[in-house]
Amino acid sequence: MTDYAKKRLVLGVTGGVAAYKAAELTRLLVKNDIDVQVVMTEAARHFVAPATFQALSGRPVLSDLWDGQGGNGMAHIEATRGADAVLIAPASADFLAKLAHGAADDLLSALCLARACPMLVAPAMNREMWDYPATQRNVTQLKRDGVTILGPASGPQACGETGMGRMVEPETLVEDVESFWHPKLLQGQRVLVTAGPTFEAIDAVRGITNLSSGRMGYAVARAAIEAGAEVTLISGPTCLTPPAAAKTLSVTSAQEMLEAVNNEIPGCDIFISVAAVADYYVLNPSEQKIKKDAHIFTLELAPNPDIVANVMNLPNPPFCVGFAAESENLYEFAETKRRRKNLPLLAANLVQDAIGHEDNELILFDDDGAHPLPRAPKIVLARQLIERVAKLYQKGKG
Ligand code: C5P
């Protein structure tokens, strides 16, 4: 499987109020294991001090074309060598104009010309500046030149007006950059992912649930988006922010999750059932909060429907992937579960490795046997899983 080496990004920050969001963007990029070199224009330094970016990226910020201190004194050439992309965020109207015309009168514009890697640009400006014909011409020219334009978004602006021109939010930009880099193994496929725990009500305030955080399912949704899929995420209760590009539906109980899956499954190519669905629900939950007394309290439980089994039993089921969390005998229990559920692919992990952790270890089981994936962040494992899904899905179709 692909070895996801650490990516290198040159982040260009230009002069606009959204420069303050570039600080958060830097933090998130670094958190996503991306090596970030920040380059600021003179105008950007009026909005945020370079020390902020230096602290967040762990590297001195580059700004001056004439500061010959580092390397061979040609930072405009050196900065992008070995980089996987240049991202300009925020990109002011002025900087778009410079890029469109090939101006190179400061370090950032010069390195954009001298780069040997792709460029992504996230414009941010007042709505009238965005609509101005010259700006629109510049954007059209940049697209023709092979530059990827991210946004802008619409909404309230720092100037007090509302409209098109807000910089795309940092979380979304990180997703966009990651998607840009990943092979489009599932381009055009519709993927449905379930994630998180379910919550089975006992009364108005209590319920039965489990320790699933939803992280693995959200990572799988994100990896499928990166691979070019159109993703619907059906999530039980979690504290996570779903990927911006996913259609996300929130549910509480297993019954609600089943209904949401049944509604979304028609036209779906791949179903990845990551959710830790509660095995039982409470018969006759109380609408009011149950008062305590001194007696033994008995709950009557009934088994929940098996969602993935329901999907597998459809006349034309999509390619289905299951998950198994076990506390012992992982290989034996997981493969038995895969065969019992008749799943072409099942990802298994030990609960003690997975629950509540940012990293995990997964073993993929399919007709070719077991494929262990070494300990890694959940997003890295999710990408490897999606690679395997794409391979088996294409094989099944071919
Ligand atoms: O049988 P077990 O719960 O261990 O199986 C786990 C797999 O089955 C997961 O993919 C999970 O999402 C799915 N599942 C389900 N509906 C249930 C229970 C589990 O879809 N009621």
Q: What can you tell me about this protein's structure?
A:
It is a single chain. The protein has 398 residues and is an alpha/beta fold. It has an eight-stranded mixed sheet, with helices on both faces. Strands 2-1-3-4-5 form a five-stranded parallel sheet, with helices on both faces. It contains 14 helices and 19 strands. It has two domains: 8-181, Flavin prenyltransferase-like (Rossmann fold), CATH 3.40.50; 190-397, Rossmann fold, CATH 3.40.50.10300. The chain has helices at residues 19-31, 50-57, 75-78, 93-101, 107-114, 127-131, 133-144, 170-181, 215-226, 254-264, 307-312, 330-340, 351-354, 378-397; strands spanning 7-13, 34-40, 85-91, 119-123, 148-149, 153-156, 162-166, 190-195, 200-201, 207-208, 230-235, 247-250, 270-273, 280-282, 301-303, 319-326, 345-350, 359-366, 369-377. The chain is elongated and about 75 Å long. The model has no long low-confidence stretch (mean pLDDT 93). Residues 194, 254, 273, 275, 277, 304-308, 322-324, 337 line the site of cytidine-5'-monophosphate.
